[in-house]
């Protein structure tokens, strides 16, 4: 894949690392995953795993796929759409899991900034996917309309992804704080270090996805034109 940004390869590597780390945390330290269990913590564990793998990892791969994959533009558009659809589906199950955990544990819903930003970001993600499908696939807008919408589609997509990355940081912080307040986590233990390291990997993943998507060449050419070079 000649011409692919080095940030794209870095994003792939960090995506794998983030996936491994979240699975190690949820299975080795937190006991595993389950949508139905008498141990309600196992139900909660589905939430961070699917939100990270879905919206952050697969959503990130969807974001960079349009520029990085070989093949025709139509093929890349279809992969872009399918990966975003899969990310949204996994995210929906992840959100269902945390509401189920709260309901069965008699914990109120939507009380934290993480919950507010998270649900808002997820709704924006879904709206972006629907508008993209209607505009670029079926029924499809006119050529001139698509040309004017594409920059906004790309900017809004990156904005939503950055929101998601930021909200992951809020989620890790919230969970660690709860565990520490309940004396279920050593502040300097291996689990705390793993979670903090995972959060950093996700942060760097977000930066790599954004940097791999930004068209530096086009920006440089536009800058040269603006100063008369």
TrEMBL record:
Principal location listed in the UniProt entry: membrane
Signal peptide per UniProt: none
UniProt cross-references to CDD domains, sorted A to Z: Cyt_b561_ACYB-1_like
Membrane-spanning residues: 7-26, 46-69, 81-99, 111-138, 150-173, 193-216
The protein's required cofactors: heme b
Database matches in PROSITE patterns: CYTOCHROME_B561
Domain Cytochrome b561 stretches: 10-214
Membrane topology (UniProt): Multi-pass membrane protein
GO molecular function, one term: oxidoreductase activity
InterPro entries: CYB561/CYBRD1-like, Cyt_b561/ferric_Rdtase_TM
Gene Ontology cellular-component terms listed: membrane
Pfam family, one: Cytochrom_B561
Keywords: Electron transport, Heme, Iron, Membrane, Metal-binding, Oxidoreductase, Transmembrane, Transmembrane helix, Transport
Function (record text): Two-heme-containing cytochrome. Catalyzes ascorbate-dependent trans-membrane electron transfer by utilizing a concerted H(+)/e(-) transfer mechanism.
Protein name, UniProt field: Cytochrome b561 domain-containing protein
Organism: Rhynchospora tenuis
Lineage: Eukaryota, Viridiplantae, Streptophyta, Embryophyta, Tracheophyta
